[in-house]
Amino acid sequence: MRFTRRFTRIFIILCLIAVFVTTPILLFSSHRLIHLGSDASKEFVGDLSILKHRIEVQALNAVQQEEVENLKEPILDVYRDGNQISAVSLYTIDKNDSLGQPKNISLAGNNETTHDTKKVGQQSLPEETVGRREKEKSRAKEVRQNVQSHPRRVLDERVKEIKDQLIRAKAFLNFAPAGSNSNFVKEIKLRIKDLERAAGEVSKDSDLSRRAIQKMKAMSATLSKASRLFPDCSAMVKKLRAMTYNAEEQLRTQKNQASFLENLAGRTTPKGLHCLSMRLTTEYFALQTEEQKLPNQHKFQNPDLHHFAVFSDNVLACSAVVNSTVSTARAPEKIVFHVVTDSLNLPAMTMWFLSNPPGKATIQIQSIDMFDWLLNKDTLQKQESLDPRYTSPLNHLRFYLPEIFPSLNKIVLLDHDVVVKRDLSGLWHINMNGKVNGAVETCLEGEPSFRRMDMLINFTDPMVAAKFDAKSCTWAFGMNLFDLQEWRKRNLTGLYHKYLELGSDRPLMKAGTLPIGWMTFYKHTRAIDRRWHVLGLGYDSGVKLNEIEQAAVIHYDGVMKPWLEIGLQKFKPYWKKHVRYEHPFVQQCNIHD
C-alpha cells in the first residue's frame, strides 16, 4: 500500500511538470500558425484582386474593339404635372451661372464626385456616339428652358395641413351633443382657438412661427383622440359634405354682394367730385357775363382742324382726357374739343376750363338741353337696365354726331374714362375705304375684351337672325373715328332710331350703346390697328405693360374707374399724372393723389 501511494504521487508530479512544460510550447506554435494563415490569406486576396483587375482590363479592351452600332444612350424622361415639369437628365443648370452652361450632377446624395463626361466621350466613344451625346445635350437644354418657363410652385404643405386640421376639428366639434361641455369639447375648442391665433393669415410655410408648428402638433394629437371617440366614417363624410355645401353657398352669396357693391360704387359719384362741381359752379356765377365765354369760338366749326367730342358730366375725368390729348399732340393749336354735359354740370365744366385753359387747343362746352329735339327720351326710358348710365341721353348722344356738328367731315369720339398717350393726328390720315366708323376689334378669342354679337343681341328673334351674322367681328367704343359725310349718306341715325323703336317693343338687345352700335354700324366699320386703343384697365389687372406703353389711347372701361377707390391701383398713375391736384378747389374737396 505504501509503495502504491508513493508511485501515485510520483505520477501526479510528473504529469504536472509535463503540463507546465508543454503549454508554453503549444501556445507559441499556435500564434505563429495564426500569423502565417493571415499573411497567406492576404497574399491570396491580393492575387485575386490582381486577377480580377486583369479580367476587367481584358473586358474593357474587348468592349473597345466591338462595334458600337447596338449601343444606346440613356433615355431622357420628362414627367409633366400641370405647370410643373421635372426632368431626369445628365445635366442641370445652376441658377447662379449667368452663362447657363450645363453642369454635371450626382445622383448619390451628398457624394460630391463628378464625372468628366467630355473626356470619356473623347477617349472611349467613337464620333457617332459623341454626336448622339450632343443631341442629348440639346434635348436636355430644351427641357431646362421649359423648366425655367414653368417655375416650380411652392407647395406650402404645412399651411394646407393647418387648414385641413381646422376643418376636421370643426367637423368633430359638431358631432358632440348640443350644449355639451365635456372635456373633449373644451379641449378641441381650445385647440381651434390656439391654432387660428398662431397661424393667423399666413399663406407660406416660411412665415409660420415655431409656436404655430407646436400648436399644429397638439391639434394632431387631439384629432387622433377624436377619431377614436367618433370612428364612424360615414357620419364624417356627411358632415363634411354639408360643410362644403354651406361654404359654397356663402361664397356664392359673397360674390353676388361684391359684384353688386362694385357696380354700385361704379355708378356713384364720389363726394369729392360733388364738392368740386359745387365750388366751380359758385365761382362761375360770380363772373361777369363777358367773362363766362370761352375763347377761339371761330374754330368750333372749322372742318380743317382736328375735332374731338367728349360727352360727360365728370369734370375731373374730362380734364384728364383734354390734358392728356393736348400734352401729347404735335400740333395742339389744331385741336378743338367739344364737351357736352348736362345742365347741372355746365357751369362747373365751363368754369374749370376757364380757369385751366388747355394750352393752345380750343374747347367748347355745351349742354345736352340744346339737343332735346334730337333725343327720344321716352324710348330710352323703356330700355330695362339697373344702371342709369346705359339709358342716359348723354350716353346715346353719340348717335347724333352728324346733326350736332353739321359742318364737320370727321370727328374722333373719346369716352371720359380714357387717357391719351400718343399724338392722335395720324387718325385723320387713315383711309376709311367708304366706312363710317373706325374702331378697334374685340373678336379675338382668349382675350378679356373678347365679345360676340350674340352675347348682347338676341339672335332668337327672326329679324335679327336674318339680318346679322352672330360670328361677325365686334368692336369697341371709347376711341372711334367717324366719317360724318358717309354717315349722312347712309342715314345711320335713322337706322339707329329704327332699332331703338324695335327694341322698345320686344327684347332685341341688352341696354346700352354697344349692342345697338353693333347693329347700327354693321358692315359700316373699319378695323384699325389695336395699338390705337387698348382696353381693359377698368376690369382686367392682367393688361400687359408693354401694350400700355405702345398704346395711343388706354381705356379704363369697366366699373373700376381711376377716380374711384375701387380702381386698379397699378393703372392709376397713367391717369393721375394728368389731373391738377394742386388746384385749390381740388385740395379743398379732399381729392388727393
TrEMBL record:
Class of the enzyme per the UniProt entry, highest EC level: transferase
Alphabetized InterPro entries for the sequence: GAUT (IPR029993), Glyco_trans_8 (IPR002495), Nucleotide-diphossugar_trans (IPR029044)
Residue intervals passing through the bilayer: 7-28
Annotated region described as Disordered, given as residue ranges: 106-142
Compositional bias per record (Basic and acidic residues), positions renumbered to this chain: 129-142
Subcellular location per the Swiss-Prot or TrEMBL entry: Golgi apparatus membrane
CDD domains given in the database record: GT8_like_1
Keywords: Cell wall biogenesis/degradation, Glycosyltransferase, Golgi apparatus, Membrane, Transferase, Transmembrane, Transmembrane helix
Pathway the protein takes part in: Glycan metabolism; pectin biosynthesis
Membrane topology: Single-pass type II membrane protein
EC number: 2.4.1.-
Signal peptide positions on this chain: none
Family in the record: Belongs to the glycosyltransferase 8 family.
Protein name: Hexosyltransferase
Organism of provenance: Solanum pennellii
Lineage: Eukaryota, Viridiplantae, Streptophyta, Embryophyta, Tracheophyta
Gene name tied to this protein: LOC107026558
